Amino acid sequence: MEFKLEAHRIVSISLGKIYNSRVQRGGIKLHKNLLVSLVLRSARQVYLSDPCPGLYLAGPAGIPAPPPQQLGEPAAGPPAGWGEPPPPAAGASWADTEPQPEGSAVSEAPRVGDAVPEATVTGVGVVPQGGAADAAKAAWSRVEGPRQAAAGEAEGPAGGWGVFPLGSRASRRPCGCPLGGEDSSGTPAATPRAACCCAPRPAEDEPPAPPAVCPRKRGAAGVGGGPTSFPAPGSTPLKKPRRNLEQPPSGGEDDDTEEMDTGNVANLISIFGSSFSGLLRKSPGGGREEEEGEKSGPEAAEPGQICCDKPVLRDMNPWSTAIVAF
Amino acid sequence: EHGGRGGGGEAGSDSHPFPSCCPLPADIISTVEFNHTGELLATGDKGGRVVIFQREPESKNAPHSQGEYDVYSTFQSHEPEFDYLKSLEIEEKINKIKWLPQQNAAHSLLSTNDKTIKLWKITERDKRPEGYNLKDEEGKLKDLSTVTSLQVPVLKPMDLMVEVSPRRIFANGHTYHINSISVNSDCETYMSADDLRINLWHLAITDRSFNIVDIKPANMEDLTEVITASEFHPHHCNLFVYSSSKGSLRLCDMRAAALCDKHSKLFEEPEDPSNRSFFSEIISSVSDVKFSHSGRYMLTRDYLTVKVWDLNMEARPIETYQVHDYLRSKLCSLYENDCIFDKFECAWNGSDSVIMTGAYNNFFRMFDRNTKRDVTLEASRESSKPRAVLKPRRVCVGGKRRRDDISVDSLDFTKKILHTAWHPAENIIAIAATNNLYIFQDKVNSEMH
């Protein structure tokens, strides 16, 4: 379970970085945000990957290569053959590269003064194992599920992701369970998903490696071409309304003065924010989620601005506290 | 020998009004660059200032002070700007300085922040005319009735004055943040690169530039890599290289097409699957690329290594040197505190036999390509008394610990050496440690070999 906690922590940290980037002097740094988004995607894939026997559809070409064989385990299934989920060891191989356990991560944290609140790290370490963690996991994926189902067509993980996380959600294969769709504004429906029979994670079971082989081969000029077998960017209807809601559409090439197109970064934040507030409105796991407060609280106090007063935050569901903060 | 840049900015003194543990952000050095002869050394800082040091000529009177660098000129290159239309603040931090080859008595350099490149001309004035007929010494008009004879004004020596003036301002060429500039060997053009595009400018023309590389995807959601650095080939004016956040290098030939989106050569090394982690992409991002003086090789820096590439071999680098591999197990912490995003630069010595790069704890590393030996040195006031010999440092990673070793957990990650420069001909190096500039000289081996 530790690697999942690690992944979850990395997701939180990454979201915080992206959020903070909005208020940084000099504007959003595209390079750093791109790198953070790649980490975010990797961590989410690890976090959401779960053995879900036999319910994965065949993936498109360009599925990332199998994960590293650090533990000498057999490969987690070739990209094309998606029948079997990867063995848990594949995910666990990630853990070896990170400080284990959480306690050691604290001690190894470099001295950087105020840069990193130690509370964040220690908070995670306090999260109880078992039920609460599973609830967190389930809560996370409940958020993911409806968006993913509604996103419709698949976008390749290789090209479709980029900075924008929606691509990653879209790229996960639905597990075939009847999941509700999003309403037109893209926010998840208020009613939580009934747990689908295979556990509510329609996550792709691909290994935690982001597409390593495919994009590497693609030249820089080919980035614009997008993934090999996927629909043109225009056919992602759910993204467009969201973009228009949150940000004036970037004129792109038409303008004489081109806007620095980082709308996808802002959207990332708003999507995470609004979808988590969907969880806020209806939080069936409220009781269990309070145990997450240990790690949510400090995360809400991460550097960066919190969009409402702290006393208000404290009164809210602790799990949502972290989300609202983002 | 070393110099502090705070306060008066004198290279020879230790004066610094603030304790070194908390430097003013504006004083943090953001770029260091020798000119083509090594006589001048320019530094830029976060506050938008440029300080130029000049090497004192060797003097018979004071043989020990030969070759020291003293402040030559200081000027404000860039100011913070606010783009009200886009609600964007533009930082004044100097990202890069590049010297133009000297073509007359004046020196010229290009300095750039995130958005605007400026050409500065540096001239000396050491004479002034005296003996005007109509004006007196202060420049006031004389009472004509007191003028009884005519004289010819003559040039008299005066205290040296260094004048700096902006000759060109190359603005509005970049939507994204400029990360590098490079002057072409033709001495007429230069290029500037941001995250997604590279523009070619003529040094005399400011109202337009040519876009020669554009990797912006039609849909930004498809973005997977950005340009991180770029440089012209030192001899072939049609060739340049740019590096990407994915760790690849692309060599482009401007003769092949107007838009160099198709590379002539693609240099990338297959990833080692056993090293895969959440942070593999970040640590493979190339933070700096430098052609060797010979033009035959390229040097790249990523988070943990420096690599030497042969232009004739695209499949993998010919040499890889570990800068601080002990950080590989700490990547998560370094991600948390943002250190993993630090962009270290790298440098060749004049004969391309030694390469240098910075690290943490004010350490910097040198690798001798011929002997395969490497050394870790520290730039700090304590260890750098004038004319002291730098003692090699060692980071111990477990196992036997020697007396002066530093353990990995004791490293100070706020003390990072991102910017270093090597004199083009001699064994003189400039090391920027936060807000301090250190200049070290190898007097024993002052000749390159």
UniProtKB/TrEMBL annotation, chain A:
Biased composition (Acidic residues): 252-261
The protein's name: Immediate early response 5
A cellular component term, taken from the record's GO annotations: nucleoplasm
Low complexity composition-biased segments: 70-83
Gene that this sequence comes from: IER5
GO biological process terms held by the UniProt record: cellular response to heat; positive regulation of cellular response to heat; positive regulation of transcription by RNA polymerase II; regulation of cell population proliferation
UniProt region (Disordered), positions on chain: 65-113, 138-165, 203-262, 276-306
Family label: Belongs to the IER family.
Molecular functions (GO terms): identical protein binding
InterPro entries the UniProt entry points to: IER (IPR008653)
Pfam hit, one: IER
UniProtKB/TrEMBL annotation, chain B:
Family annotation (PROSITE patterns): PR55_1 (PS01024), PR55_2 (PS01025)
InterPro entries in UniProt: PP2A_PR55, PP2A_PR55_CS, WD40/YVTN_repeat-like_dom_sf, WD40_repeat_dom_sf, WD40_rpt
UniProt keyword list: Repeat, WD repeat
Keyword check for Zinc-finger: no
A GO molecular-function descriptor: protein phosphatase regulator activity
GO cellular component term, pick one: protein phosphatase type 2A complex
SMART domains reported for this sequence: WD40
Record bears the keyword Repeat: yes
SUPFAM superfamilies according to UniProt: WD40 repeat-like
Superkingdom of the source species: Eukaryota
Family: Belongs to the phosphatase 2A regulatory subunit B family.
Protein name: Serine/threonine-protein phosphatase 2A 55 kDa regulatory subunit B
Native organism: Callithrix jacchus
Gene label: PPP2R2C
